[in-house]
């Protein structure tokens, strides 16, 4: 204050009142700011909680994968194959022995084991087939039948079963002999109907590709044009990868329903269908098709009867009827050991069943019921899984939470040349999020494996046949699309591996086996099964 300055009491009161108003306004402003700040913090935290899942899901300790045990399971399965052809074709004593082995193992592990059987359309290869070509000798002009036993100058080329040729799905029998001099007509890529017409009553020879892309399409065409037999040459798959510069023949199935429809209600029993290698095809072209050589083609095949396929399952019943199933097909193509397709998947199922059994013994009864199954009849048309789903359709439609399928979930041992990836995919976004998180957990816990292998993830939540729909190429298909006549879309997860050039060939042996790679799907999916089994709300 300045000396001698006088301030009236009225002015002083006005200053005090104004100051009080300013203080009140400041307080209000500050309080509003704080309130807004608190609300913002609340909303942001709520957003993070509900939408960003700020707190990670606790999946617990990971199950322990034992690759040596998995290898033993695989070796046991291969030892049950055909004594000469090595395969475990459905409907055979080899498939029966395999199913019984799996069923017994489930029982030993403490599961309630069952062995269901289903009579389904199947073809059977009854004995060793024969495919030979003959170049007639010079004595044919003296009244000796060309290529007969008396044609002493004949040259016979024997093609090797499994390596040079294999019988195809729902092939019929054949009894073509040298003395019949059956004509073999080159159909090109199958796109020219006039060539099919020319082949009527004879043997058609087709090079894969063109406008007739599948075995089913080829078989239907052969029925339409009344061919005696069909030979398909492989000149574009696995060429130079398995055997020299050759392209090794592979087994492929055919659609039973399409063949029956094309043939007026039955499978043609005397229309043989084989696939040959590139080298064998070139012999046929040079010796028989383009020269005077003759064909012998003897196939003892039954294709118009039903045969029994088997489905062993092991179940741990939980507090709820809600059901988790893990499956793979235990059958192989008839002529191959099937180390990768699908001994790898079946051995993984057995290992996961073992891992889960050990967990249950420590932690007690699960909330959900857990079942491990293997399927017969996959290679000829998903027969075992389809029959199982039809048999238990209502219960599955009401209770199935998730089906996991393991079919060739294997990476070839040669990572540098053949690739190093596995692909895990599902048809539901919730399952995808969990699998994604468990894949990250696996990488963190197994850094060396994460460096060694690429783990791809996929979400296929579209409808059947849509670009982003779940493919229908293995045993998960009926669990997804055939519940309650398709009114219930089942939830499934699948794993595929990489590098299997030996697919459906005689060369699918343990030489290529990589049990280490099976630990990726066994651990990730095993942990997911464990999590779902003990968390009923998920």
Could you describe the 3D structure shown?
With 538 residues, the protein is α/β, with parallel strands linked by helices. Helix 2 packs across helix 8 (339-363), helix 2 (67-79) crosses helix 15 and helix 12 (429-445) packs across helix 15 (515-533). The protein has 2 domains: 67-122 and 305-533, Aminopeptidase (3-Layer(aba) Sandwich), CATH 3.40.630.10; 130-299, Glucose Oxidase, domain 1. The chain has an 8-stranded mixed sheet with strand order 1-11-13-12-14-17-15-16, sandwiched between helices. The protein has a 5-stranded mixed sheet with strand order 4-9-8-7-6, sandwiched between helices. It is built from 15 helices and 17 strands.
List keywords for this structure.
single chain; about 550 residues; alpha/beta; Aminopeptidase; Glucose Oxidase, domain 1; 2 domains; eight-stranded mixed β-sheet; five-stranded mixed β-sheet; about 35% helix; disordered N terminus
Précis, in short:
With 538 residues, the chain is of the alpha/beta class.
Query: Order of strands in the sheet with the most strands?
Result: 1-11-13-12-14-17-15-16
* Average pLDDT for all residues: 90
- What structural class do you assign from the helix and strand content? alpha/beta
Measured distance between first and last alpha carbons: 76 Å
Instruction: Describe the largest sheet.
Output: 8 strands, mixed
Q: Please estimate the helix content.
A: 25-40%
DSSP helix count?
15
Let me know the CATH homologous superfamily of the largest domain.
Zn peptidases
Rg for CA atoms: 33 Å
Q: Count all strands and give the number.
A: 17
Shape: elongated
Strand content: 15-25%
Number of domains: 2
The CATH topology of the largest domain corresponds to Aminopeptidase
CATH top-level class of the largest domain: Alpha Beta
In the CATH hierarchy, what is the architecture of the largest domain at level 2?
3-Layer(aba) Sandwich
Low-confidence stretches: 1-53
């Amino acid at each position: 204050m300045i000396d001698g300055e006088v301030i009236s009491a009225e002015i002083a009161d006005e200053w005090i009142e104004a100051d009080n108003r300013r203080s009140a306004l400041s307080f209000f402003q500050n309080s509003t700011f704080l309130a807004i700040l608190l609300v913002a913090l609340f909303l942001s935290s709520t957003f993070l909680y509900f939408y960003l899942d700020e707190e990670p899901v606790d999946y617990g300790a990971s199950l322990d994968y034992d690759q040596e045990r998995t290898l033993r399971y695989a070796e046991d399965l291969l030892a049950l194959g055909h004594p000469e052809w090595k395969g475990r074709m459905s409907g055979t004593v080899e498939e029966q022995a395999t199913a019984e082995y799996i069923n017994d193992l489930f029982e030993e592990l403490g599961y309630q084991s069952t062995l269901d059987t289903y009579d389904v359309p199947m073809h059977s290869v009854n004995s060793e087939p024969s495919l030979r070509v003959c170049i007639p000798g010079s004595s044919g002009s003296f009244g000796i039948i060309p290529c007969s036993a008396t044609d002493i100058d004949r040259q016979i080329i024997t093609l090797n079963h499994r390596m040079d040729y294999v019988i195809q799905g729902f092939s019929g029998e054949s009894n073509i002999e040298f003395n019949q001099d059956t004509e073999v007509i080159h159909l090109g890529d199958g796109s020219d109907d006039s060539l099919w017409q020319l082949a009527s009553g004879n043997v058609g020879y087709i090079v894969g590709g063109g406008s007739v892309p599948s075995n089913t399409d080829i078989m239907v065409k052969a029925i339409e044009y009344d061919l005696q037999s069909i030979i398909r040459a492989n000149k574009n798959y696995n060429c130079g990868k398995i055997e020299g510069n050759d392209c090794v023949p592979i087994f492929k199935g055919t659609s039973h329903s399409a063949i029956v429809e094309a043939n007026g209600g039955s499978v043609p029993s005397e229309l043989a269908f084989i696939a040959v290698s590139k080298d064998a095809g070139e012999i046929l072209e040079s010796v028989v098709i383009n020269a005077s050589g003759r064909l012998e083609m003897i196939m003892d095949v039954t294709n118009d009867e039903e045969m029994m396929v088997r489905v062993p399952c092991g179940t741990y019943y939980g507090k709820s009827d809600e059901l988790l199933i893990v499956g793979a097909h235990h059958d192989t193509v008839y002529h191959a050991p099937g180390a990768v397709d699908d001994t790898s998947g079946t051995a993984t199922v057995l290992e996961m069943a073992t891992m889960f059994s050990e967990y249950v013994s420590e932690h007690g009864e699960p909330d959900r019921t857990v079942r491990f199954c293997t399927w017969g009849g996959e290679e000829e048309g998903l027969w075992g899984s389809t029959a199982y789903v039809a048999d238990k359709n209502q219960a599955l439609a009401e209770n199935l939470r998730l089906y996991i399928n393991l079919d060739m979930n294997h990476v070839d041992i040669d990572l540098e040349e053949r690739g190093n990836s596995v692909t895990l995919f599902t048809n539901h976004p919730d399952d995808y999020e969990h699998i994604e998180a468990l894949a990250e957990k696996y990488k963190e816990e197994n850094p060396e494996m994460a460096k060694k292998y690429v783990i791809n993830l996929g979400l296929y939540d579209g409808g059947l046949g849509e670009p982003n729909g779940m493919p229908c190429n293995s045993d998960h298909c009926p669990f997804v699309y055939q519940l309650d006549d398709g009114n219930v879309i089942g939830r499934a997860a699948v794993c595929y591996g990489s590098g299997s050039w030996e697919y459906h060939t005689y060369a699918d042996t343990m030489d290529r086996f990589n049990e280490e790679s099976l630990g990726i799907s066994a651990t990730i999916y095993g942990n997911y099964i464990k999590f779902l089994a003990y968390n009923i709300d998920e």
